[in-house]
Amino acid sequence: MSKATNIFILGATGYIGGSILLRFINRPDFATLNVTALVRSQEKAGKLNLLGVHTIVGSFDDLPLLENAASKADVVINAADADDLDVVRALLKGLEQRHETTGNVPSYIHTSGTGEMHTILLRFTIFTSNTGVLCDTAGGMYAYETIYNDEDPDQIETLAPTQMHRLVDLATIEADKKGTSLNISR
Predict the structure, then answer these.
(1) How far lies 12's CA from each of 74, 78, 125, in Å?
(2) Ordered alpha helix ranges (H), 51-165
(3) Are 169 and 185 in contact (CB under 8 A)?
(4) Contact 156, 176 (CB under 8 A)
(5) How far apart are CA 115 and CA 81, in angstroms?
(6) Staple partner for 44: which of 38, 39, 84, 176, CB 3.0–4.6 Å?
(7) What is the pLDDT of residues 124-169, one digit of tens each?
(8) The whole model's pTM is what?
(9) Which is nearest to 37 in space by CA: 82, 116, 51?
(10) What phi, psi does 166 have (nearest 5°)?
């Protein structure tokens, strides 16, 4: 019998994190996964426990708790907050400990999720069409010569540290370059 994959997920009771968690729960091999979710209340913990999910009751203010949980995980999924650099650093530090302990390179998946929608909603009038396209009312008034492509890492490396979410991006990229965790951001 193979060893269970340890997964630590933040944001499991939110929109994106909940969708990810449901995908794990519905897998036929769910029993081979050891999924642990950070939750903010005992009530949420109880509901997830009934689904076979382990829980840790805590918050982003408890960085040692997050670091410790990450140090026990093969995969950490942060679907809770795109910009909390202290949380990301604690998670990456825990993953570095995991790497040192096991010799395996753990994975860190970081998504900004619906927080991005909130940011966009504050700036523009948003509407969705039946094709699911998100549009704004800029009316072509803000054209730029550069169009950034996530599939071009060299181009992404040119983004200034002052760009939105960039400090978190730089922390995850640095951990990936060190080889202590494989990072997948946004």
Answers:
(1) 17, 9, 29
(2) 63-71, 85-102, 114-123, 153-156
(3) yes
(4) no
(5) 8
(6) 39
(7) 444 443 344 444 566 667 677 777 777 887 887 888 888 877 888 8
(8) 0.79
(9) 51
(10) -65, -35
